[in-house]
Specification:
292 residues; alpha+beta; Phosphorylase Kinase, domain 1; 5-stranded antiparallel sheet
Amino acid sequence: MILPSPDYRGKVRDIYYIDADRMLLVASDRISAFDVIFAERIAGKGEALTAISCAWFKALRQSPLPESLDFQDHLITDRLEDFPEPFCQEEALRGQSVLVQRCQRIDFECIVRGYLAGSAYKEYRRSGKFLDHSLPAGLGAGDRLPVPIFTPTTKADNGHDLPIERRAMQKELGPLAERLETISLAIFDFAAGKLARQGLLLLDTKFEFGLLGEKIVLIDEILTPDSSRLREADDSSTNPLSSKLDKQFLRHYLEGLNWNKEPPPPPLPPEIVEETRQLYQHARKRIIAALS
């Protein structure tokens, strides 16, 4: 059968609004970097992201996180047979789609950093700090921070998300901002502990949240190669941020090109597409093994 066009198409996800309470989230094989969508597709990427996110949602439900955090996730089911008509008949959706609760999205991304990488490292080199976090002198790229830090950004449907200080988020959200920070740091700590048993370091990650009434709901994807930086604990590479476990591999390749990170994107060579495909499958295997 041919599905109708999605009600919303994001950078890499398609959304079908089922009713006032539910929606179907489809992880495509599209890939984006620096908020730009590429023409090439990464086979199996959607299935990998869906499997990883669902494994984390289920692990968090069984985790020892304190009930005082008072949040839930949006996952209803990842079983095709339990999807409503006509989606339950579309075999192409199996493995890369989830039925979730519809929430009022909170328009901030909740980023937690355990290591100095990405934009945080660039700003640290310039000013010795990042946003409203003072950091010790002498840190290098990829160094572990004394404690994980919460560094939110704006949430943009189009264009680039922008880092903001926590007080700006607090001004917008009030006491909710502190609750999101506490929850994000707790999930990060839980996830980092799980991954460490598989010899993986969680450098940083982003979470997104919504509201269902007054209940905080963890939404979107979580702790995937798209939303996180991961590294082998015993990686002896001369580049401390090199990894074949997350999308940073593609970003490193693109930063070596003469491209301004604005549309249109450059074409991806077949060998880069294949290496990217392999990293998603490798990350899927390693992360799910950490949760077994």
